[in-house]
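Recall from the previous chapter that SMILES is a line notation for molecules. Here it describes fe (ii) ion.
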Amino acid sequence: MEFRVLAIGDVVGENGLDLLVRRLRPLKREKQVDFTVVNGENAAGLGLFPAQAEEIFDAGADVITLGNHTFDKHQIRPMLEENRYLLRPANYTARAPGRGTGYYDMGRCSVRVISLQGRVNLNYNCDNPFTAADRILKEAERATFTLVDFHAEATSEKLAMGYYLDGRISALWGTHTHVQTADEQILPRGTGYLTDAGMTGPVHSVIGMPAEQSIEGFLGGLRGRHTVAGGACALHGVLFTLESGTGLCTAVERIRVADAG
Ligand SMILES: [Fe+2]
Ligand SMILES: [Fe+2]
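With both inputs in hand, we obtain:
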């Protein structure tokens, strides 16, 4: 049986969220998607409000993953504890609220989603994501399909994780860097892979922020309060076609959906 998984890169700001709400369901119909994972860590610019998480679920997400901005909006804490479809990185410490992995019974098959965060150039106190993945795959109930959102800065760390988990999981995609990479592939042992899914946010921006604000920081000035750029948005993601017999991937397609103009 074929099973199609759509992973959407970091939703940035209200305009990015608006694009997701308008375009996700038509996209799912067009691509015959069975399961959708959306990274929501930037819906509030930095972090995610509970009402925005509800909007992302209503838009058609089965699972929302997060990343280094998980706790930037403290209001999300109760939802992290209560909603098993909302995941923060699994390699956070045991004191961190919420969970990093979920098992979902889809009737004709089951899906495990694992959120992990990298450690290269990311300031957060988390365990080694490689050994965390080993531990989860060893201990967790086995699902027909296992999906990993690896939220990491370095392409090397993401590629290394892809090869490390190749053949043990169905698909892995990167999030966090907000720029879609063009290296979609099936790794040698059958895992679907893309280094970064890209973002769902303003096209004319520096990873979501107004260019002039970002440039000011690089010039040595003060960036000031974090804001999200205006203007037209694009949705970026990746579509994996999986096979239930093997639990592995048979096709990978990069996704880009943008409004005209
Ligand atoms: Fe992000
Ligand atoms: Fe991030």
